[in-house]
C-alpha cells in the first residue's frame, strides 16, 4: 500500500478561526507535555532518593534499630539484619533482592533513562512553544489587519 502523502500548509494561509483552533490544539499539547515533564522529574527525584537511601544502609549498622517506613508518614522500628542486601521494587508489585551495589546500579540506570527522556521531551516542548509563538504572531497580525482594513486586508 502506498503511504499517504502529507501536505504542508503555511500558517499564513489559514484564516483567524483556523489559527485559533490550531493555537488551542497546541496549548492542549503543551499542557500535556509539561505535565508529563513534571511527572518525569518527580520520578527522577524519587529514584535519586532511592540511591541516597541505599547508600545509608551500611555494614556497620548491622543489628542496630532503624525506623522502617510503611507509608510516607508511618514507620515501625526494626533491626537491620542484612545490610549487604536490599529489596528493590521493580514495579507492578514485584520486588527483587539485590546487593547494595546492584541496587545503586539499577536506580542509576533508571535516573539516566529518565534523563534522556526528559531531554527529548524538553526539545519537543521547546519546538511546540516556538510553533505556538509563530501561530500567535500570525494570529495577532491577521486580527490587526482585519480591524484596520476590513475583511479584504486580511485576505492579502
TrEMBL record:
GO MF annotation: an example: unfolded protein binding
Annotated coiled-coil segments of the chain: 16-43
Region forming the signal peptide: none
Entry keywords, A to Z: Chaperone, Coiled coil
Annotated Gene Ontology cellular component terms: cytoplasm; prefoldin complex
Gene3D superfamilies xref list: 1.10.287.370
UniProt-listed SUPFAM superfamilies: Prefoldin (SSF46579)
GO terms (BP aspect): protein folding; RNA polymerase I assembly; RNA polymerase II core complex assembly; RNA polymerase III assembly
InterPro entries named in the record: PFD_alpha_archaea (IPR011599), Prefoldin (IPR009053), Prefoldin_subunit_alpha (IPR004127)
PANTHER family in UniProt: PREFOLDIN SUBUNIT 5
Record HAMAP family: PfdA
Family: Belongs to the prefoldin subunit alpha family.
Protein name: Prefoldin alpha subunit
Biological source species: Panaeolus cyanescens
